[in-house]
Amino acid sequence: MGQPANEPVSVLGPEASVLRLLGLWRPQEGAGQLAPLLLAAVSLASVAFIPVGVVLRLCGDFPQQTEETAHCSYICIVCFGCIVKAVLFIVEGGTVRELVHLLHAMRSEYGTDEGSERIRSSYQSTVDRIYRYFQVMALVPTLFWICSPLVFAALANTPQDPQTNHHQLPLPFWLPGGVSSTPTYQLLYAIQALSLTVTVVSAVCLDVFFIRLMMMVAAELQVLNEKISAIESFQASGSMYGREAQEYALVTSGDRARDSTKKSAENFSDDEIFSQLLNNILHHQVILRCIWLLQTAMNVSIFILLFVNMANLCFNIFVTAGLLQDGRNVTKAVKAFSTVPGLILQTAMYCLFGQITTDQSEKLLYSAFSCGWDDCNTRFKRNLLIFMLMVGRPVEITVGKTYKLSKEMLLQVLNGTYVLLNMLFHVHSDD
């Protein structure tokens, strides 16, 4: 599926094409959107099929072991987070589209020089590598979850294990007696494999989509820092121009021509420096608008994601520890633990890239103070002071209206995981 001609492809990455294929991302709003809506409905139904099967399992054959119950709870929580994130992404589609087009327009209007484009390309390359890493990290556990029933069946058919006719599915699902010997089992197996694949692919692409937008905002902040710092060198070149003009006037026309040329050169330099400052202030205003749109799109979904990841890390480690302690099933233990690195990486990426945006914002004050303002006129100093007051409070990406994406937030999620895990172990030991 190709990109439309008027879509700002310079801001988007390959994950946007996958989301369009799933019906979750629509570059334009208008007529002729029936096909994306149908694709979105199929994708959401595929994700919802997994927790429905888990609920049937809990209602039809409630597991006797605590680890199995925790495993079912983990799957329900994961799918709940994926569904909420996908639905809110569709609901906030207008906000996301406005953000993408605003970023594209900002890149075309501010900082069009080679150095600025190099900064943006560096950030784009970083997100492209992250997308590939996410794909690999998601592919391995997904394949293991899909193939683990086949591995378990192969081990169960050995002479040492009498369970020769026990069929399992990749995910919990209630199978009445006799179903395992009919094509229904193969059909359910295929549907679960497809649903699991759609769930993982949509989750990875949505994460990378948001991370790319965060990094594009951070890139614009770094471009702005470079432009503000360049005012000093621009001022120095303007002063050099004034000295050269003064010497030229002294040789050709005497003192009167020298004073007139010096005055016009200084006025030209002051106007150009002030124009550059004004352009940077306008650039900063557009960046603030982008950050507000980004927070609006991420506010609820990413807050739920961080909370869900905290609970999922707790459940997964608890299930893995319980299975390994009893020695009942190493395959299930590996299956449960295989998703832990992905959950930690997903949480870390949001928090650390949010921290990068804040760090770039904090540098604006120092860049403004170091721009050589002491040799500028009063008009420049007055407007620079206003700009410094504006950037004195660093920009922070906030989700849930109170939680800031930062290194401290990552530590809070890990600490909350430890607290929940400790509570689960105490409850399990009391039973």
Automatic annotation (TrEMBL):
It is found in: Cell membrane. One of its GO terms (cellular component) is plasma membrane. The keyword Membrane applies. InterPro entries: 7tm6_olfct_rcpt. It is a multi-pass membrane protein. Keywords: Cell membrane, Membrane, Olfaction, Receptor, Sensory transduction, Transducer, Transmembrane, Transmembrane helix. Belongs to the insect chemoreceptor superfamily. Heteromeric odorant receptor channel (TC 1.A.69) family. This is Odorant receptor. It comes from Ceracris kiangsu (Yellow-spined bamboo locust). The lineage of its organism: Eukaryota, Metazoa, Ecdysozoa, Arthropoda, Hexapoda.
